[in-house]
């Protein structure tokens, strides 16, 4: 199963079984945001990571947000890129 198919199924499941969590999913990232993040990291983002963020750019809520696993949040691209840029300073 491709990641795209898996993400469609996941979103369907969330909308039925966890609508409050589904509502915290941000809109898709833009190609410009993907390019900017890749430039911060200094390398292209893997194709599956790009597909993930073209699905949704993380979550928008600080509480009751979608967790990939317990305490593992789906961060917007700005989060990891910002942390990475600070780590390099």
Explain what you see.
It comes from Dactylosporangium siamense. This is Knr4/Smi1-like domain-containing protein. The chain has 89 residues and is mainly α. The protein is built from 5 helices and 2 strands. It has helices at 3-17, 19-22, 31-41, 47-55, 78-88, and strands at residues 67-69, 72-73. It has a two-stranded antiparallel ribbon. The mean pLDDT is 83.
Any chance you could write out the topology, listing elements then pairs?
Blueprint: H1 3-17, H2 19-22, H3 31-41, H4 47-55, E1 67-69, E2 72-73, H5 78-88
Antiparallel strand pairs: 1-2
User: How are the strands of the largest sheet arranged?
Assistant: 1-2
| Topology, number of strands | 2
How many domains comprise the coordinates? Answer: 1
Which structural class fits the helix and strand makeup? Answer: mainly alpha
- Low-pLDDT parts are none
Keywords:
89 residues; mainly alpha; 56% helix; 6% strand; Knr4/Smi1-like domain-containing protein
Q: In a nutshell, what does this entry contain?
A:
The chain has 89 residues and is mainly alpha-helical.
């Amino acid at each position: 199963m491709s990641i795209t198919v898996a993400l469609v199924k996941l979103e369907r499941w969330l909308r039925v079984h966890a609508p409050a969590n589904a509502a915290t999913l941000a809109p898709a990232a833009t190609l410009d945001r993907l390019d900017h993040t890749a430039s911060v990291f200094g390398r292209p983002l893997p194709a599956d990571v790009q597909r993930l963020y073209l699905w949704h750019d993380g979550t928008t809520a600080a509480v009751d947000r979608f967790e990939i696993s317990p305490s593992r949040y789906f961060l917007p691209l700005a989060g990891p890129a910002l942390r990475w840029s600070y780590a390099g300073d």
